[in-house]
Amino acid sequence: MKKIILILLGLILFIIAIIYFSLWSHPDTGHTDVLVGKQNVETLNFKNMDSVSVAAATMYEGALLKEIMQGEQYRAEWAVPVKVPVLLLDRTYGGLTIIKKGGGKQTKSLRLKNGKDVVYTLRSVAKDPEPLIPEFAKTLGIENLIIDGITAQHPYGAMVVAKLAEAVHLPHTHPRLVFIPNQKALGKYNEGFGNKLYWLEYETEGEENWSAFENIISIIDTEELQEQKFKHRDKLHIDTPALVRNRLFDIVIGDWDRHAKQWGWFLQQKNDRYIAIPLASDRDNAFFTIDGLLPSIIASKNVQPRLRPFHEEVDYMPGLVYPFDIYFLKGVPKETFQAQAAYIKTHLTDAAIDQALATWPQEIYQLHGQEIREILIARRKNLDRYALEFYKVLQSKDYPTQPLKGSEDADVPKELHKCFECL
Hints:
16 helices, five-stranded antiparallel β-sheet, 423 residues
C-alpha cells in the first residue's frame, strides 16, 4: 500500500513538473508587432513606404510539450508575418486627430475624429493580458497560462467576420488592418502607440452617421440607450429581429464574448418614434479555439462556462446566454428566432463563406482557414436547432437583478435595470 502511495505521489509530482516546464517554456526574444527585416525601425521614414511585413506577436511560440499542455490554437497565426498598409493619420479620411486614449483590460486604443466629426477607433491587435492575471497565479508562477491564453483568439478574425456580417445584412464597424508608425500626428502617444499593428474602425458612439441607415440621430452605447428609453418610454424600441439575428450570427462564428459594453446602437427617428438598431463591435473572440490539456480543463462548462470553443458542435448553450440577452430578448416569440435562423441559413452560403475567408492573406488562410470553413458550415447547418436551444435557455432565466456591464451609472429607475421593456 505504501509503495502505491509513493508511486501516486511521484506521478503527481511528475505531472506538476511537466505543467510548470510547459508554462515556463517561451521564447527569450518574443515580442509583439515584429517588423520583418526592419531592425532599425526608429530610423525608418515611413512616409515613403506604403506597406510593411509584420508579425502580430512571436511571444507565443512554443515547443511540442507546450502545445500538448497548453494547446496549438492560433500560435502560428500570431507569429507569421503579413503585409500590412502603413497608415499616416494626417493622410487618412481627410486627416485624423486624437480625441482620447481608450482601451479595455487587454486592448490599447485611441479614439480619433476627422474633419466631418466622424469618430474612429484604433484598437491594438496585440494584447496585454497583464491586468487579467490574478495575484495567486503570480504567486504560483503560472501567470504564463493566462498570457498564453491569447493564442485562443485569432488575430485576424475581425476582417473575415465583417464580410460574413455583410452576407447576412448586419452592420459592422468596417475594421481595417493597418500599421501605425511613429509620426507627428501621434504626439505624446508615440511612445506607447507608435510602430504597432491596429484595427482602424468606426467607433460605436458618435453624433455623425457613417452607416447606410437613414434618419440616424446618433450612435450610442447601451447605457445611453437605457437613458433614452427612460426619456422616450413607449416611443423607443429596439430592432428585435436584428438583435436576434446578431446573436444567432455570434453563435455561427463562435464569438462567446458578447456583454453589453460590446454593442453600439444606431438611434433612428421615424416621425415621433425611435428605433435602436444594434451594432456589434470587438470581434477578438470570433473563431475562439481551445485545445491542449490545461485550456480544455479551464474551458469545461463546470469551470468557465463562458469560454465556449469554436467546434462544429455547440457544446453548452447556457454558457452563451448573457444577462444582455435576457435583458433585451426574454419574451421575444420563438418564431422570431426561427425566422432569423432561416434568414442566416439562406444568406450565409458556402460561396459567401469562401469570399469572406478569401480576405485573409494566403499565409494566414493556409493555417486554419479550411478548418474554420468547415466549422462555419456545420454551425450554419444546425442553426435552426441552436436557435431553439438559445430561445429555451433564454426563457428559463430570471431577469437581471443588477445593472448590465457598463450600465452601472445609467440614470434610470430600477425597473429599467431589470429589462428594456419593464417600464
